[in-house]
Amino acid sequence: MDEGPVEVRLCGYTQGERATLEVRAGSGRVAIKAYATNPAAEAALYKALNATELAAQSGICVPPLLFRIRKLRLIVLGWLEGPTVLHLIRRGEGERAGFVAARWFRRAALLDQRFGRRRGAAYAMRKASEGFPELGAADPGLKAFAVALSKILVRTRPGEGSPHLVHGTLYDRHILDLGDRTGVIDWQRFGRGPLELDAGMFLATISRVAIRHEPLREAVSQAQKAFRDGTAGLLDESALAWHEAAALVRLATKPLSIAGGERLRARGLADPQAVAISRARTLLEEAALVAEPVFREFERIEPRIRARLPVLEPNAPVRAETLKDQVQSSMERIE
Q1: Where does 6-78 sit in CATH, by number?
Q2: Cα–Cα distance, 224 to 89 (Å, whole number)
Q3: Ranked by mean pLDDT, which of 2-6, 118-122, 267-271, 295-299 comes out on top?
């Protein structure tokens, strides 16, 4: 880095897990990530990806690993310069945002890197359910809604074919437009799993943008269309809908988390708890709408196919009534 004044900015923090610092000195810029646990696996991933396929291909990249300080559990990464997909949408460039994200998936599908733990439907549901205690403390009816939805998602979980390298938490803010390349950052939850896991989370996070900011709905719609057009034939539509619904359930619990509450209070809202509950409710309703085609399809499958769904009780098919009716009856019992 250049000589001169050093500027340090906290740009990411997860309590009890990690912190990310942006460090500037002159024209130089790096990311320093500090962890509560050993980041050896993530460091190895950055090194391996930059040494093999990604280094040889144009179109996609991840941050280069500059060095690692083992005793302090720190890694230092090169900074990727470019707007995130979230920033593109906020600027009204929805079509570009969808194209940039789709480019990552088209290239990532060709990678032969299968690092990390298994990341699939079971992982998605486990992460979705982690916030249920906070949801129940804020609104028992919402928890009943989330639990009913999750039980049906478990019954209808998709099959998983050959695993790919997956990010694990691919939000809109993790995908960067680098001009002729797409960059992806923050790989601490990477693993092996279906591409639909990452694609579902990506679509869920941009749907959340439209829910929070009505003026951006058109840009989000453009991004969704461009992404689906750009990944046509690559992703299984039913599995994608399932993973998007599971991701929306997971996102619904975020406003009611400690960190989510702190962010809302920092904005000076008159009643941050009411805002958090409203956001959670809207995201859960969106999850139900996204998942509805999956549930209808499941009702028509052959018995021999149902046998591969170990959580489905014999002679207890999902009822033909809509999910909305099912969760409504659960909420009425709570009341």
Answers
A1: 3.30.200.20
A2: 11
A3: 118-122
Share of the chain residues as helix, strand and coil, in percent rounded to the nearest 5:
55, 15, 30
pLDDT tens, residue by residue, 196-247: 999 999 999 999 999 999 999 999 999 999 999 999 999 999 999 999 999 9
- What pTM did the predictor assign? 0.86
Pairing status of strand 74-78 against strand 65-69: antiparallel
CATH H superfamily, domain 85-334: Aminoglycoside phosphotransferase (APH), C-terminal lobe (3.90.1200.10)
Over 70: is that where the pLDDT of 299 sits? no
* Residue 223: closest CA among 85, 86, 101, 98: 98
Ranges of beta strands (E only) in 181-278 are: 182-184, 191-193
Per-residue pLDDT, 305: 32
Name the β-bridge partners of 166: 191
